[in-house]
Amino acid sequence: MVNITINGKVVRATEGEMLLDVIRREGINIPTLCQHDALEPAGNCRLCMVEITRTEWDGWKKYVTSCLYPVEEGLIVSTHTSELHEIRKTILDLLLANSPHSDVLQKMAEEYGLHKTSYEPNLEGDNCIMCYACTRICEVLGKSAISPVMRGHEKVIAPPFGEEPPDCIGCLACAHICPTNVITWTDENLTRTIWKKKFELIACEKCGKATISRDFAEYLIEKRGLPKEYFNTCDDCKRVELAQKMGALVDKAKEVAL
Ligand code: FES
User: Fold this and answer.
1) What's the pLDDT tens digit per position in 80-123?
2) Which ligand 1 atom sits closest to the C-alpha of 34?
3) Residue 125: which pLDDT band, with cuts at 50, 70 and 90?
4) What is the pTM of this model?
């Protein structure tokens, strides 16, 4: 264990733990966009920047991305100085210039007193902030169905050659993890469409509701060892079934007690 100081309070942490995790555990809120518990930190959005120093640094300090910075004994951390406020405001200003239509960014920028970007807005921008959360989660799933293509300001996240991605299983992990809600999909009847690829959705055998894509179910059966029958019913029907079983058990216990 190590001792570090965050905003004047001495805090115990596990050596090597990332600073952002310790800060959050202390209930301190700092903005992030590219961080997600399911992903290794990547340091792409820079919003989690904090100020660090040490007593032996004689007043010298530096700014680090807390999601990527492992804690060490004696670290002195500040999370909310006026300089940090300006740094985060500038980052949000730049992000907003590139994605001026993003509700998420607009809301975050407002919290920093920024009502619109001070840079030339890219009105054609698609709200993608290039945090790569989507490609990273797809890689975690062992699929890598999408990736960055092109360079510079033309760079976009897309399937290979802009065609239906052969490795995509329609799980929606990329869409759900995207912090600015750029990735869209549709579910119509029992067909899901994402990245222009169509997937059959499994219908719950009890209520008929569409559940997950058959490709994703097959992936989970193979990789996670889930039983095939698990996907025959939706989560709601599973809950009802469990409640009924519990109720029957309680009734039985009452009968025995009488
Ligand atoms: S959360 Fe640390 S850089 Fe995005």
Assistant:
1) 999 999 999 999 999 999 999 999 999 999 999 999 999 999 99
2) 4
3) confident
4) 0.87
Closest by CA position to 75, among listed 156, 161, 134, 15:
15
* Residue whose CB lies within 8 A of the most ligand 1 atoms, among 23, 35, 136, for a mutation test: 35
46 alpha carbon – ligand 1 mean position (Å): 5
| Phi, psi (rounded to 5 degrees) for 47 | -70, -25
Cα 21 to middle of ligand 1, angstroms: 11
Q: Give the bridge partners for 18, in sequence order.
A: 70
pLDDT tops 90 at residue 16: no
Which CATH number among 3.10.20.740, 3.50.50.60, 3.20.20.140, 1.10.20.140 corresponds to the domain 2-80? 3.10.20.740
Closest by CA position to 71, among listed 133, 24, 33, 132: 24
Domain boundaries, the chain: 2-80, 133-239
